Amino acid sequence: MRIVALAALVGILLLAVARPARASVARASVDDANAALSAVPARRDAARAALHAATAATDDPEATAEAYVLLGQLDEDDGAYARALANDRAAIQAAPGTRWAFRASDRVDWLRARSEGNFAPLARLERVRHDPALSSDPSVVEALAREADTFPPGMVRVEARMLVAEAWLGRLHRPEAAIPLLRQVTSDPKADPLTARLAERELVDTLIDLDRLDEAQGEASARASLLEPTFVKQVRRLRVRRRVRFGAEGALLLFALLASMAFARAGRDGSLGRAGRALRSLAPVAGLFVALVAVAGGTLASRYESGNAAPFYALGAAVLPLVLLARAWGAVGSARRAARAARAAVCAAAVVAMAFVLLETLDPQYLTGFGL
Q1: Each residue of 356-372: pLDDT tens digit?
Q2: Dihedral of the CA atoms 254, 260, 261, 265 (nearest 10)?
């Protein structure tokens, strides 16, 4: 008899263990809400009703906290930021220490940092930020820039100006309009360090792209604390590089002018034939030498992972006419020692200038090795 009773008791216990625990009311309601939100299209009203039922239940604090978090997300989507903030705080209170409480805490911090103007500026910003059509409409972007000037000091004003500046720099192609907005962000005490650094970098890059190198260097030097030291040095090098470019263009212009004058003078006195004979004798040797230099330099450069052989091939193609012109100029030019020395200097400068122009055009990375 005792054995039968014991066996019955064990059977009851096994059935109790095997029977799945009944889900709490709050958990079942949250599951219904998630199913409604996952539907296509999402059934937001049904989800909200289920979440309210979950928050009214008291049988599962963690499910209740999840319901409050999901309600907060729905409120944010609807632009009801004050209500979203209240729901996130309720989630923390319902189940402190849970993952839902930590998630809600992050949202509370985010919303509180952008609560100026009773969330009205945030609602205006988010409306533009989350609508691709609005954020690509120049009139809407301009209106947001004007409204940002009326926003109370705070993160929303900073983010609105950054949104407008990035629209001008990117898809709307008005970099000049972005410059004053980026300056406002970098000087705004409410801007967080990361945003201020991003704005300063984009400001200097924009000035460089517009070839306003003096302004770019002045900006980089004045706000060097917001930029990487290597970037500040690079901006200074760009200014030096511009001066060298002007010098290179001047050297090429001088070479072309003096050679043209010599050929014109030779044409008048009938000695231009000497240039032709000199070219016929030098052309094969010059062509072979320049080809050797170009191929050797290009092969050597291509052996490196970041190397680029194109500048060397282009240099060979560009230097060959310079060498031939220099030889023709020498054939018809003055034979005096001073004249020959001057010609040699001008021709050498032209070759170096051509090399600089090609490197700057095709692969400026090579110029950094020369401090440019």
Answers
A1: 777 777 666 666 655 66
A2: 160
User: What is residue 370's three-state secondary structure?
Assistant: helix
Nearest to 155 by CA among 187, 119, 191, 124: 191
The span from the first CA to the last CA of the chain, in angstroms, equals 101
Cis ω for the linkage preceding 96 (within 30 of 0): no
What is the C-alpha to C-alpha distance for residues 216 and 36, in angstroms, rounded to an integer? Answer: 54
CATH 1.25.40, domain 27-112, yes or no? yes
Residue with tokens 């330099």: 297
Q: Which two tokens stand for residue 93?
A: 């209170």
Task: Give 163-194 pLDDT, tens digit per residue.
Answer: 999 999 999 999 999 999 999 999 999 999 99
Which residue type sits at 260? S
The tokens for 75 are 């409120």
Structure tokens at 337: 């020692």
Residue 163's nearest CA partner among 184, 283, 228, 323 is: 184
